[in-house]
Amino acid sequence: MLHPFRVVVLSFLWSTCLLLLSVSAPASGLESVRERGVLRHLGVEEYANFVTSGREGLSIELIRQFASWLGVEYQFVPTQWSRAVEDLLGRQVLEKNGTLRLGEKRPISGDVLCSGVTALEWRKQLVAFSNPTFLTQVLVVVRGDTPVQPIQPTGAAQGDIARTKGKLHDLELIGLPDTCLDPELYGVKSARPPLKVRDLRPAQLVPRLLDGQVEAVLLDVPSVLMALSHWPGQLKVLGPVSSLQYMACAFRPHDIQLRQAFNRFMEKIRWDGTYYRMVEKYYPSIFSYFPHFFANISPEKLSNDSFKMLSFPGSRE
């Protein structure tokens, strides 16, 4: 697939890629969605409470309501992280010598990718993200009986990250390549234990940690909240390896009208409290960590300065 940490996209190459995309995907965009009468939602099964194994979750409810707002039917299209962007773009995504390029054509499977997708820099080179829909952060999680203790927060993101990385030298740690949990994105050395990590889903990381197959895993905030609730007292968070990150829904770059329609829809449900109630249903404890972000105000009114570093019980000073 690709190695996001090494991605460097030259401006002229990116312009060419956009041109190729616009030629290869005629049956897309707001007009085509309305003509077809169906909005195709690409989602990764299963991922935290965004898309559950029963095809429920925050992302499904969000896009289902968006489809209703557009006056069309809703269709869920399952995908995997390894091919999600390709399923959206209708092109193979290749990496060579640190540069992304678009390869052979492939079927376009959906109109919007929404599944707790973190707006990583390499993804921004390929897709157009909506306004932010969720806040997250990547954390190191270990078993509760691990002798290594959580960091003492410094009050600054980079200080907390440095302290966390300093505790990882003797731990076998894994994440998931080509996702927001890729250790390479954050300069975290992975011990490469004998696991086929590319075949794992985020939901499978904690069971392998508790089984003793690894000593530490990378998880994002939504997955951590679920894990702490599902395995109370068995896990602890050492600290972050990333600063705060946004999640958003991804669209093809040329589907401007569809993306703008989604942003208008999001602004409406933020203001009327609908989105707050959605989030509360699937992530009731998130408000303790990011209270300002999920208030019923539009995201452009918020700045990064509004948010404080995430601190979980057991890792506070």
Automatic annotation (TrEMBL):
SUPFAM superfamilies per record: Periplasmic binding protein-like II (SSF53850)
SMART domains to which the protein is assigned, alphabetical: PBPb
Keywords noted in UniProt: Signal
Pfam hit, one: SBP_bac_3
Methyltransferase keyword on record: no
InterPro entries per record: Solute-binding_3/MltF_N
Chain ranges of the Solute-binding protein family 3/N-terminal domain: 38-286
Protein's UniProt name: Extracellular solute-binding protein family 3
